[in-house]
Structures are given as structure tokens and as C-alpha cells.
Write the C-alpha cells for this entry.
Amino acid sequence: MYKHILNIIHAQLPNTNKDMLALHEPQFSGQEWNYVKECLDTGWVSFVGKFVDRFEKDLADFTGAKYAVVTVNGTAALHICYLLAGVKKNDEVLVPTLTFVATCNALHYCGAIPHFIDCEEKYLGIDVKKLETYLKDIAVIKKEVCYNRLTQRPIRALCVMHTFGHPVDLDALSELAKKYHLALVEDAAEALGSCYKGKHVGHHGLVGALSFNGNKIITTGGGGAIITDNEAVARHAKHITTTAK
């Protein structure tokens, strides 16, 4: 019954195996070979160079963020986002139950603890109403720091994930983050090109992470980026990803 739909999809992907429809398939049909050769010829093949500068500028321009800092992959971008948000060892960070493992792995690198929050059915992101009800029960504010009343650990940040590029309810989640003194981190790994009320996702809070893995909207093979509107945060991110890496 889905043959007609599959034929339409295959027509857009002429190089695919007709017996298989890949979940994702990168398309290289432009100047990629020339750009790779040019990069190799310059000798600038690490974390600096004109291609890095150009990519960061293009990302900032495309997303509308004031600053973009590229990373080795999306997990590294998330790791640095958490560090920039002040996440420390034994802190808790609120994360969605439905997400890729990198959202939590990056927390593990910080020595922090994922605190899972239910997701809603329509857009698959964090359920705002359930989160609000839960925070009323679990959260205690002391000197502008949110604590889990059961574990006595600080809840340092709220990480939202735009599942398959579907933006979460950022207005409501931003308000909750402010109310409970939580840094808002956006896992926008799957959401390049997605907007919420006309503004690209990833820089509605303090920081956001993008991914350019082989299964993403655009790919650099691996690769990721941090986007933010905060100059001091961007400078710190650049320091961490270059001289302090």
C-alpha cells in the first residue's frame, strides 16, 4: 500500500538502491571534491582556517544567531554547552525521555546526572504541563539555585531536544527555566532549518548544539556547532574548542 509513496521518495534519490530505502542518505552533488582538495592544499586541516571561519559565519547568518562555534561533533557541542551553562559534577540536568544517547553522554562527561522528564505525543518534546507540575513538587529554590528536594542535588539546567526537527514549546519552557533558575540548553542536533515563531531554534536560551553527522540535514562527515547570542559565552566556547581543547 506504500509503494506509491516509496516510488516518489526514490524519484528524489536517484542513486539509492531500489530494494532499500535508507533512513538517511547524504547527497554530494556540488563542489565537495574541489573544496576538500582546496582545504588539503592549504594545509589548514584542523580546527582553524578559512573554511572554519566561513562555516561559522554562514551558520550564524543562516540561524540568525549572533555567534557560531564549530566542534568536532554534536556530542562535543553538547558537552561544551553544558560546561557553558555551569553544569558541574553531581549536578542534575533535566532532559527528555525521548532523545539520542548523546544528550546524556555529554552530561556524563561533566560528571552530572540526567534527570528524565516525560515527553508529549504530538511533537515528541518535553511535556510542558507535566514538567510544570513536577517542578512544583520536586524543586526547592535556595539563593537562586534550584535543588531537587529528594536528592538535595542542584538542578542546574533544562535541556530541550527538538525531536526530528520539531520545535518544542520554547516560550513556555523558557518561562519555566527562568522561574526555576535553570540555564536553558537546546539540543538542536536534528533541527537545522527549524524555526519557532519565526526564530531559528538553538538560540532561544543560553546556548544550543547542532550536529553535522552523516544522518543530519547537512553533513561534514562528523562535526557539530554551538550557537548563542551571548558574546562572552561564544568567546569561552571558542577558547574551549581551540587553545583549551
Q: What stands out?
A: Residues 42-241 form a domain with the Aspartate Aminotransferase; domain 2 fold (CATH 3.40.640.10).
